[in-house]
Design brief:
Elements lengths: L31 H14 L6 H10 L3 H9 L12
């Protein structure tokens, strides 16, 4: 693979028509986004305050059908405070 070529892992999975990136650098989701969602949800679970920009990012991510499906598949609620209660 050459420098600027990036493999498409799952076409359509990471596409977005609006900016979801907390940094505002990209309108497309990247592989780090699911990890950030989980970390932010765990922060909510243990009541760690996060910056408003990241809270907004998490709120937008929770509206994505793929996030809702993934959490449901794992048997998890969108409200991370209910995890493992």
């Amino acid at each position: 693979m050459r420098g600027s070529q990036v493999p498409s892992v799952a076409p359509g999975l990471c596409s977005s028509t609006s900016s979801f990136s907390p940094t505002g650098l990209t309108a497309q989701l990247v592989i780090a986004d699911p990890y950030l969602v989980v970390m932010l949800m765990w922060a909510g679970k243990v009541e760690i305050e996060v910056p408003k920009r990241l809270s907004g990012y998490l709120a937008r991510m929770k509206t994505r059908p793929s996030v809702v499906r993934a959490l449901a598949y794992e048997g998890l609620s969108l409200d991370s405070r209910q995890w493992f209660s």
